[in-house]
Amino acid sequence: MKLQEIIKKNDQELAELLSGARSDLAKAIIDSRTKEIRDVKQLGRLKKTVARALTITREREIAKQEQA
Question: How far apart are CA 47 and CA 53, in angstroms?
Answer without folding.
Answer: 10
